[in-house]
Amino acid sequence: MINPLSSSHMVNMEFISNAMILSFSILLLLPSASYSLYQKPENHIKTAIFVTGSFEMGPGSIATKTFENIKFPKGHVGIKSFDAELVDQEGNSIPSYETYLHHWFAIKYHQNITMSPNPKLRRPEDAFFQRNEGTCNGGILPHYWGFGVESRGTTSKIPDPFAIEQGNPTKIKNGYEEKWLLNIMVIDTRGAQDKKACTQCRCDQMNLPKDFYNVTRDIHNQKLTTNYKGGLFCCQDNLQCKQIEGFQGSRRMVSLRYKISWVDWNIYQIPVKVYILDSTDKVRSNGSKILHDCLAEYTIPATGGGGDSPHVQKANIPMEKGGYLIYGTAHMHSGVVNATLYGQDGRTLCTSTPKYGTGKEAGNEKGYLIGMSVCYPQPGSIKIHDGEILTLESRYKNEFRTGAMGHFYIYLAEELPQ
After folding, report:
1. Which residues contact 417 (CB under 8 A, 6 or more apart)?
2. By CB atoms within 10 Å of each CB, which of 2, 298, 323, 378 scores lowest?
3. 348-378: string of b/e by CB count within 10 Å (b at 16+)?
4. pTM for this structure?
5. Are 353 and 399 a contacting pair, CB within 8 Å?
6. CB-based contact 24:179 (threshold 8 Å)
C-alpha cells in the first residue's frame, strides 16, 4: 500500500499528483434530508454540501492540489451519491471555458490515531490507501468517486437498496481511523494562446522549467523523455499555459464544492463494490499471477489516420471477482465519442456517451463535454462472472490529442434484493 502522508509521498502518489499540499480547512456543511420510497420508513437519505479550502488562480495558471482529512459522513454509512464542481469565492459555479476541471478524485485512507504530526517521524504503516476493487496497479486510480469537466452532468446516484458501504468498524484495523482526501487538477484557460491544447496539457503549450525533462519522473519512476508530448506531468502545480501577449485578467479564489448523500447502514442496504477499469491496462502474467499495468492516460498520435473513424483504445481485462452490474459510466475528456464495456461473449454491458454544451452558462458550455451517460440495468439482468475477461474500448475523435483518459466505473453487487 502507498502511504499518502509519508515524507516520500510526492513520489509514491505516482500519477495522482507531483505536488501534494495538505489542507485542513474549515468546511461548510449544509445538511438536509429526504426519505426514500424504496426503504423502510426508519431509513432516510441524508445530504450535505461541503467546500474544500480555497486556492488562488490567475489567467493560465495550473493548480494540482490535495486536501486531506476532508469532511465526510461519520460512522457506518452507505453512500448513495458523491458529486462535485468548481466554485469561486462567492460560491458561484465557474464555467469550463474560464477554469477547466481536469479531474477530481476522492480517495480513502486509514491513518494511525497516534501518528506523529512531524512528517520526519512518520512510519510507512502510519497511513495507507484503501483502494477500490479495480484492477489497476499500485497507486493508479485508487479512488472511489471522481470525474472531470463532465462532473456537473454525470450522475453518481445509486438506486435503492444499493449503496457503497463505508466506515464499517470491523474493516478498520484497531488503532486506526478511516479518512478521505480529495485530489484535484484545475486549469485556468483565460488568456491562453490555445485553450484546447492547454486543457490537454500539451507540453509545448506550457511554460516549463528549463530542467523539466531532467528531473521529471513518469509513473514507473523513470526519467520522462522528450517523447512525452502532453498529459498529467506537464500540468503540474504552479505551471502555466502560454498566454496571449498583453492579456490582462484578475486573480480569484477557487474551491471544489462537493455534495454527498448517504444512509445509515442497516440490514436493508445491499453493498456494491466499486471497480475502476482503464483502457490503457496492459495485462500480463508472472507465472500464475496476473499483473495490470495501467497508464491512466494516453496520446492519440497525429498520424492516427484521421477521417470519420474514431481512434479506439482497447484493453482486455480479466475480473477475478464478478457480480451483478448496478451502475456504469465513463470518465473521458472533450473529443470523446463514447466508451463501451463488453462481456467475454461479446455482449454489451454498458455504453457511456457524451453530451456537449450549447450555451454559455456553467454546465452548458458550448463545445465542452458537460456530461457522460450512465447505465442502470435492471438489477439481476447483467451478471459478470468470476474470472470473466471484459473488453473496454474508449473512442475519441481521430485527431492528435494528449492526456486522453478512458476510465470506466462499474458498481457490482454480489447479491440482489429478496
Report:
1. 161, 270, 379
2. 378
3. ebbbbbbebbeeeebbbbeebbbbbbbbeee
4. 0.88
5. no
6. no
